[in-house]
Amino acid sequence: MVDKKEQIHMGPTQLRPLNGDICHGNRDKRCRKCSYVNETLPHVLCGCKQHSGAWRHRHNAIQNRLVKAIPPSLGKITVDSAIPGTDSRMRPDIVVTDAEKKKVLLVDVTVSFENQSPAFHEARARKESKYALLPEALKAQGYEVQVHALIVGALGSWDPRNEPVVRACGVGRRYARLMRQLMVSDTIRWSRDIYTEHITGHREYHTE
After folding, report:
1. Which domain of life is it from (predicted)?
2. Which domain holds residue 58?
3. CA distances from 55 to 40, 52, 83, 121, 194 (A)
4. 176 occurs within a structural domain
5. Residue 189 confidence (pLDDT) above 90
């Protein structure tokens, strides 16, 4: 469920109506960038692959905030890397390994469009299902494994179920509040830039 108290929206973004939002007449509703059948805000911010570079930057902005906040005492931190000692080719966003205590923490970040209340629940379930088999390989080696998803809405909503994830990552309560605000702000900024480029064709960011 979306935390309404913490929800922050992008504000006015309708520079011009999206094709899918026009109800009158027989206007073509297809996406102007990829020709998907219905050009809606969820499609623009989370579905149109013409913006995949910006999606990656939006995702990494959230990911990097969390990586920087994890205390080194929690273990060795790897980002977007395969896990040694397993046959899996999966590359979780963040893995924290404490070899001495035989503990592994996996965190995957995702940005989901919050158009319905189950949206975050479904996004979290997909992430947990994706990595369902990976913990078994690590448990067979004697590791205690935690698998988490950190989810932020494309319009700036914060999933309350992120709070246990943040605590598991060892982030202090005081900084956790600031980090949450920064993650939401980063997400809104990137979503606004994606929308602006989609409508106007003008790119306000640079991708590598």
Report:
1. Eukaryota
2. 52-198
3. 17, 5, 24, 20, 8
4. yes
5. yes
